[in-house]
Structure formats: structure tokens, C-alpha cells
Amino acid sequence: MESATLTDRERTEPPRREPAVPNCVIGTILFVGTEIMLFAGLISAHVIFMSERIGELWPPPGQPRLPFEETAINTAALMASGIVLAFGRLAYNQQPRRALLPLGMALALGMFFVGFQGVEWVGLIGEGLTLQSSTYGAFFYTIVGAHALHAVAALICLAWAWSRLWRGTLGKAHFDSVQIFWYFVVLVWPVIFFQVYQ
Amino acid sequence: MADASVTTVEGAVEHHAHEHHGPQGILKYIWSTDHKIIAMQYLFTGLFMGLVGGLMAYVFRMQLAFPGISVPGFGVVSPHEYNALVTNHGSIMIFWVAMPVLIAAFGNFLIPLMVGADDMVFPKINRLSYQVFFVSAVLILASLFVEGGGFGGAWTAYPPLSAQGDYNLSSLGATLWLIAVALEFIAFLLGGINFITTMMNSRAPGMKAYDIPLVCWMIVIASILFMLSVGPLIAGAIMLLFDQTIGTGFFDPARGGDPILWQHLFWFFGHPEVYVVLLPALGITIDIVATFSRKKVFGYKIMLYTVVATGVLSFFVWAHHQFIAGIDPRMANVFMVTTLLISVPIAELCFVVIATLYGGSITLNTPMLWALAFMAEFLLGGVTGIFLGATGADIYLHDTYFVLAHFHYTFFPIAIIGTFAALTYWFPKMFGRMMNDTLGKIHFWGTIIPFNFIFIPLFVLGLGGQHRRIYDFQNFPELAAMQPFRVFATMSLIVMLLFQLVFFYNFIQSLRKGPKAERNPWKANTLEWTTESPPPHGNWPPDQLPRVYRGPYEYAHPDREEDYWPQNLPA
Questions:
Q1: Interface confidence (ipTM) of the complex
Q2: In chain B, what residues touch A142 (CB-CB under 8 Å)?
């Protein structure tokens, strides 16, 4: 825009200032803020639900215990994915193409996380935990399912970022946006894990 | 740095293409990404929905005044139809009239023009926002005609009534209602992201934070409030949708759920929502009052900080809707204190407006009348709110017509008076023609006087103990005796609705034959008045985007001959 039509006015006056934070980063932060409030709503609903059941037999009779230990491994995989992505960002600052490997690893770890969850869900449904079987099950599938949907969406963004990086067209602002979204998915998970799987 | 420039060039190329190869013909008005056209789409959809909501009010008010009558144009109102009408009247007026017109239409139209940008920063997301909104509007209207009828569980949708088709007998209507509301929220999330980012990043060179017109600030603060409060309600809506369709038991006590949980999730959003729609209307009022009293806004920064304080406080008052829902009385006391506290900043805002008027050279034309009426009527709404905020009084007044009259005294000024104020003020800029001031004043008085005549009787009825959700009061001898009040309110409503014909006549006539508007018919300072009326695509010629040298309200500056000093005029 600046180079195409430079008028006298623009030559004499300073150009429109460069925004301190790029548009798509602000947009992503606002979106993630809303998502944080969505999960705050779901999690606080679960907290209230649990507080009304203090002293009751838990989990309810006939319902399986949630696989805390296996999911702890899975949680570690997701955390690792976030850390690898942080190293990817550092590598990108030096040489964009150096971020290809860490970004790919973050993507693979994220896919492992979602896949592992899928396997876990199949097992739990087999043990009789469904949305309708009890409010316990309903909360589990709603909250963890909402997170899984966000994880899949964020993985699609990561894959898109990786393909643009491969073609050498991934801008800094786009990398930042994808990174913020993935960090949201990574960091909201431990809260869900300790609240829902306890 | 290299990457940043790559992005900029890409953006510029994209924008360039959009300018020259945008949709042509009729598609221009449907598929455009221009913020002004999207604003018009929101405006006309919102006005249409306002008409639908107003006619719904006509039907159920007729039933209340003349129970069992065959309402002209509708027929006999059955109890279920009555419930569906009041529910959808409330939902439509808040979600499909107040929000699209005040936030989306005027936010879209004003923010880029007032901050000196050529468009929103995310034009395609903006278009998507309207499309999602349009689908939601179609769904809410469709929900009235499906098998079992529209949803009749009030706009608050309290479970267990809303949780299962067996209870509300309109399972399809309830589900469609819920999906429509959820889609509407998504539309406004997309819009809000645009408003906030545009105001942060696309301001004209020289425009500092305190040079932004207050109406832009208000719309942006309202968007932030909306985005922070809506998450828990979306969470609740997902859970309620599962209760309705899959058969979970989040909110249904019969299936091990907790109905009060929904009330918390709903009102955590529901109370900030009042301020979400109030703030844009207040910003519109302030801008109009400053222009037509030819005075600088008294205490620009005080106003801004007060509004932020109101916004923060509005997140801690929600349980005042639940005083008699069985919450802990100690908690109720806390919420009573915060609720009464919130009247302090609102009173401050009223005083700011009065101080702006004081000593001004006031022109009482149509927009100014609407703006002043907004303050007067909203004040009545606020004062009656104090009674309801006090736990002791609320036990008696809860769910009576007193509550109903109270929130109509807040929402009517916001949604209707605020809309007319903005529409009459920015009409020359939006459509390039002047509106007829005499017809505007006739419409003003024909709306304001009947409005008070509708709702003052309802205060009396509420104090007399009339409950909100009753279809026919003839079964209650004490309440049946107050029938003249109901008839009077209904008659006033019909008068008010008829006076809207004056507005539509004036609107269409002015659009066709009104005198051409110059760039700055009101001699106002803000940037939107520096471009043509109506503004061309891109708002200003690409090489003449404005620069800003001063604040938006420099009226009657002692050093200047003229009594206004546009923001873009070099010193």
C-alpha cells in the first residue's frame, strides 16, 4: 500500500503507525479469553456438582473409576507438546525452517493425546459410563469432549502452520496466533484433569 | 521484521483485490464485506425483528386486557401461545433487536468511520458474523411454527421446565430456541473481536486513547463485557441442549441434576448483558448531547473510568435475580450490597450528562429529544431497581409486574429510544439525506407519552401483587378488580405502535425525497462527518485518510471563531 500510491501528503507526513500487536494475535487472544470463560463455566459447574455430593459413595454405584494413572501419562504428552512448541518458536526466531521439526513433534504429541483419549473413551463406554448413565458420566463427556474438540481444532491450526512453514510463507503473527491457541488447549487441560479425574 | 512486511504486503494485495473484484449488483448488498453494508444488514434485520417483537406484545397485551377475545389479526390466544409469545417477545427484543441494532449495526457503522479506518480489520469475519446472525434470526422465527409451538418457558429458560419436552410440551421449539440463542452469541463474538481489534489497531495517525469518541469506547467496552460473560452461558446452553436432546440430567432434579446451577450460569451472563446493551445507548446519548449543547463532554475520563468500574462491578451482582430461589441469605446480603453499589457509577453518568448540558447552547431537535428522553426514562428504570435490589423488598416484589415495569423502563430506553436517537442523528451520514424534523418530533412525542402510559400502570399492578406469568387474571378476584389498568396499558401500547407508522413514513419519504445532506449537517467534530454522506467504499479516498489533532468534543473553543473544531483540522 505504501509503495504503490505515494502521494505528497504521505511523503510529508509520517505513515500510519505499525500496530504494537498484530491484528490476528489480538483476535486470537480475545477468542481464547472467551474460551477460557467457557471452560470456567463448565469447570465451576462441575465444582458445584461435586460439592453437593460430599460424603456420597464416589464414583456412583455401577459406574467405573476414571483412569487417573493412564491419563497422567497422556497429560505429560500434552505438556511435552507445549514445551516442544516453545522451543520451536525459539528456533523459528533464528531460522524459520528450523522450526519444522519441533512444530511437527508438537503436532504428533497432540495427535497422540487425542488418539489416546479416544481409546480411553471406548474403554469407558464398554464399562458402562455414558452421557445418560449418570450425571457423573454426563459431566465427564461434556467437559472432556469440549476440550477434545478444541484440541482437534488447534491441531488443524498447527497442521496448517506446519504446511505454511514448509512452503516458507508462515509469518510471525500467524505463528504467534497458532501458538497462543495451542497453549490454551495445553494449559486448560491440567485444570480439567485434576478437577474431573480426581 | 522481514516476516511482518510479508504479511503486510499480503494483506494489502488481498484488500486491493476485494476493492475491485467485489460482488456486483444485488449480491453487493448480500455478500459484501464493507462494514457499512454489514451495518445496514444488521440494522434492517434488527428493525424487522423489532416490528415482530412489538406485534407480539400487541397480541398478548390484548389477551391480558380483554381475556378470551379473538385478537384482530391473530385470533384467540391459547395459554400455550400466550407463553410462547411472551418468551419470544423477550428473547427477540434483547437478542435480536437491542444487540444487533445498538452494538452490531452502530458498532459496525461508527467504529471504522470514527477512528478513521477504511474498514474493519477482519472484513470476512464481519460478513460471517452477520450470516450466522441471520441464520439465528430465521431459526428463532421458525421455532414459533414447529410442531408443539414455540418455546414458552420465559427468556430465562429456567429448568426443569426447559430441560425436557415432557415438561414444556414444545421439545422442538425449545431446542430451536436454544440453538438460535447460541448462534446469536457466536455472531456477536465474531463481531466483538472485530470491534476491539479495529479500535486498537486501525486508528488514524494522531488519535490517542482519549481522542476516541465515547460511543466507540462504550461499544468496545460492551463487547469486552459480552465476551467475558457469555462463556459460562454457552457452557450452560450446551448442558441444557444435552438435557433436552440426549437425555442427560444436568439441570433436572428428577435425573440427579441441579436447576439452580442453570440460574447461576444464566445470570452470570444475564446481568452484564444489561450493561452490554446499556453502554452503546449511553455513548450515543453522550455524543448527541455534546453536539447539540455545543459543549465539551464534562469529565471525559471520569465517564470512561466510571464505565469500566460499572463493567467490573456488573460481574458481581448476578445473584440478585435469585433472592427467593433458595440461595443462602448471607450470600444474598453480599449481592444486595454490590447491587446497590452499582447505582453509584450510573448516577455519576447521569450527572456527567447534566453537567454537559449545563450552560450549553441547546438545540432541541429530534435526536437531542431522544437523547434527553433516554436519560430521563432510564433514570426511572434505575431508581425502581433500587427497590428490587434490596432483599427485603424483593421478597414481595419478585416476579410481579413491578419487575416487569422496572426492566421495561431500562430496556425500552436502551433498545428503542437509543436506537431512534442514533438513527435520527446518523441518518444523514448513513443515507445521505436529511430526515423531516417535524415528523420526527411527532413520532417522538407519540412514542414517549404512550410508553409511560403503558408502564406506569404496570408498576401499580405489580405493587398490587400481580404475578408476571399468568395468562388470565379473571380467575383471581383481587387482581381482576384492577382490570382498568390493564386496559389502559393495552390501549397505550396500540397508540404507541400506530405512531411508529409515522416513523416508517418519515424514514421512507426521507430516503426517497429528503433534502441532500451535506458532509457535516450538525457541525460535529468527529471523523465520520469529514467524509461524504453516505461515505464511499473505503470511507475516504485511499490517499486522504484523516489525521487527528485533538479530542472529539472541542465545541465552543474560546480561541476560535466557529463553535466547533473538527478532530482532523490541523492546528
A1: 0.90
A2: 238-239, 242, 248, 250
